[in-house]
Amino acid sequence: MVSRRALIGGLGAGAFLGCRKRVIDGRQVARLWFCYGGNNRIALLDLVNKFNGQQSKALIEPVFQGDYFESLAKLRTAIAAGVPPTFSHVLGEVIPYLSTAGVLEPLDDYPGAQDLDLVKPLAQGGAFVDGDKHPMIALPFNRSTPIMYTRRDMMDAHKLKAPQTWDELLSAAKRLYRNERDGLRWGFEVPIDWWFWLAMVGQAGGRVIEPDGRITLGGDAGVKALKFWQSLVHEHKVMRPPPGRDFNAWNAANDDFLAGRAAITWTSTAYLRVIEKNASFPVVTCPLPGDVKRSVPTGGTFFVMLKEVPQVEKIAAWSFLKWMCEPEQTIEWATRTGYLPVTNAAVNRLRNQGYYEKHPNDWVAYEQLQHADPWPWSTTLFRIERDIVNPRLEQAILTNRNAEDTLRDARAEAEEPS
Amino acid sequence: MMRPRKWIDPTWMLAPTLILLVVFFIAPVGIAIYQSLFSWDLLTPPKPVGGANYIALLKSGELFWVTGRTLLFSAMVVSGAMSLGLSLALLLNRRGLWFSFVRSAVFSAYVVSWVAVALLWLWILDPDRGIVAKALHLAGVGSVKLLNHPDTVLPVLAGVTVWKITGYAMIMFLTGLQAIPNEVVEAARLDGAGALSRFRFIIWPMLRPTATFVGTTSLVISFQAFDVVRVMTQGGPVRASTLFVYAIYESIFMNLRVGTASALTVVFFVVLLSLSWLQIRMWRQKA
After folding, report:
1. Is A401 an 8 Å CB contact of chain B?
2. Which part of chain A is CATH 3.40.190.10?
3. CB proximity A69 to B under 8 Å
């Protein structure tokens, strides 16, 4: 075993020594692997340039690595090969696994780490069950929740209010649906992705992993959530599953909403600015409806620093991370994208400046955090998402496969060793 | 037969090729076989699991479905590219500017990159804004989700692949056709052989080596299909377009299951080896 790692490591070390520029013009270089395109990419690169222009000790080199999943695959491969970047940002679901693998740098002892005043549901301490019992290895960066996007013109025309329950969502979707003869418009659309299913599982009163570690995938609540989703597509025919997988489906759902082919959609707060900017109609966001209770998972990514990089690079990266948590940068990032501000100081400043009165959609996203359910601290969480649940959700919703059978099979696979 | 003066001479002359062969082909297969016996995610220590990766692939049906799907895809691609390529070659085997233009137009698809082809067809087949959707809508067929339905996605991907490689098959068949001596065909014509008989008894037998070559290369291309899947469907919907190479990619690069990906690679190697063996056998029988 050691020899395989040694082989990969040896090859990596060659690349490491050959390619890694450590110091440029007396400034320590720290490489940041990031995963954005479009508006979010521009916002991040502007911030990086601002940081690089404001001081003369550290130089952050941002490198685009594809979407979250591609970037994560590259990151894990780079770690195994011994050529990790200095820091990156990764999905919350994968943090317990990376932490257990021992590849992340604990950040508690870096100067100022204890004074960041992070918004608890978005930070490691609140975003995970018992997250604060582990060393701080992740800093919240682009954090989000799913929210409901509606069109004020359509809602007003049909005398509809924001749906508060699943039944109200169904009834609104039925009212807003228009058939092909009159110009097809789906009442509701949401990407087939476990993030949204997870929200519904929570709303139906379930958990994917119980506090004692049992993988239940929500039990009856999981089945109820899946059946509701199936009924929207197959029984009531008010929703179409957006084409494509992963972020292709997310983009398709956004496009349908913007083009008027879908009246209501659920997607991430991350798309708030893009949707508002490109919509030819007034966009109104609302909290996700509830079933037996309200519940949303948090989403987006955390900054992580890699353990196996030189200390000087870590210090340079930390100076950037700390700077990003200052109210100015947190506010710039949140207001330019739609992601949630991650420090209390930033939220308070926005509130005092009257930002939320002018941008009520942003406030909806922030306020919904009171219903945010933390992720279980489980090393298998990411595998359950990618390998087990997501493909089965797609199958169950597209082919209307029996929900109980689908989740029973998923549970059985989740219990097998990976 | 010539004999080397020293036994070492042919060995060192072959060494560069042999080293490349060992480093890039034989050793990786060996490593894949070894790694298929472990459960490993690259970051945590590998656990020896014996044949569990193979058993899991068999038990879950994944191996059966991925192999079946890939073979079906290959059958569609090989038969489609060969029949279309041959038909076009027969039609366009004429002199003249117009025929040259059409030949170039058909072949042009082959020189375009796979990603560009996939993006182009993604746009054409878009269920809302694509030309195909609009045409079907005008024809009163209603909305047809060709790429978004498990039953239609594989034939559609095969169609795109055939569209891309037909030009190549056509050029190969044209080369074969032009190598057939005109006198032989003329003699058959004078003997009263009709077009069908000339094709069946003269042209096709003489084109057989070309057809074998086109069949083999199309088979290789179809087994290598990746870009078109990655760009157009990401293996979906419901894994209906997850072909062998994509399944390997997904296992290792998206889900970091090195053991599973290695087991799939070993099976893929065995399938390809069996197909090559079959092909060589058929060639030898014909020879």
Report:
1. no
2. 25-144+299-373, 146-297+380-415
3. yes
Model's pTM, two decimal places?
Answer: 0.83
- Class of residue B51 by CB neighbours under 10 A (exposed 0-12, middle 13-18, buried 19+): exposed
What is the tens place of the pLDDT at every residue in A170-210?
999 999 999 877 888 999 999 999 999 999 999 999 999 99
Q: Residue B202: what residue type? A: I
Which site among B42, B44, B241 would you substitute to test the A interface, given the most A Cβ atoms closer than 10 Å to its Cβ? Answer: B42
> Given CB atoms, is B43 within the 8 Å cutoff of chain A?
yes
The residue behind tokens 């998972």 is A297
* CB-based contact B236 A245, cutoff 8 Å: yes
Q: Which CATH superfamily is domain A146-297+380-415 in?
A: Periplasmic binding protein-like II (3.40.190.10)
C-alpha span between A88 and A303 (Å, rounded): 6
Chain A positions touching B139 (Cβ under 8 A) are none
Q: A395 near A195, Cβ under 8 Å?
A: no
- Please, which residues bridge with residue A185 across strands? A178
A398 lies within 8 A of chain B by CB:
yes
pLDDT per residue as tens digits for the range A73-124:
899 989 989 999 999 999 999 999 999 999 999 999 999 999 999 999 999 9
Instruction: Quote the CA–CA distance of B18 and B24 in Å, as a whole number.
Output: 10
- Beta strands of B44-183 (E only): which ranges? 47-48
The answer to whether B256 contacts chain A (CB < 8 Å) is yes
Give residues 58 to 77 of B whose Cβ lies within 8 Å of A: 60
Q: Which long-range contacts (CB under 8 A, 24 or more apart) does A215-219 make?
A: A215/A380, A215/A384, A215/A411, A215/A414, A215/A415, A216/A411, A217/A384, A217/A389, A217/A407, A217/A410, A217/A411, A217/A414, A218/A407
- A53 CA: distance to closest CA in chain B (Å): 36
Residue A142's closest CA among A47, A266, A12, A21? A47
Q: What is the pLDDT of residue A131?
A: 93
- Put simply, whether A412 touches B (Cβ < 8 Å) is no
pLDDT value at residue B133: 83
Contacts of B128 in chain A (CB under 8 A): 256, 259, 261
Taking 3-state DSSP, the helix, strand and coil percentages for chain B, each rounded to the nearest 5, stand at: 75, 0, 25
Question: What does the alpha-carbon distance between residue B166 and residue A104 come to, in Å, rounded to a whole number?
Answer: 50
**For residues B63-93, b (16+ Cβ closer than 10 Å) or e, as one string?**
beebbebbbebbebbbebbbebbbebbbebb
Residue A156, H or E segment: helix A152-157
Domains of chain B with bracketed CATH: 70-233 (1.10.3720.10)
**Residue in this structure with the two tokens 């002199």, named with its chain if needed:** B95
Contacts of B41 in chain A (CB under 8 A): 76, 101, 418
A191 DSSP 8-state letter = -
* Spacing of C-alpha A224 from chain mean position: 24
The fold of A25-144+299-373 is D-Maltodextrin-Binding Protein; domain 2 (3.40.190)
Q: Provide the ipTM.
A: 0.77
* CB contact at 8 A, A36 and A106: no
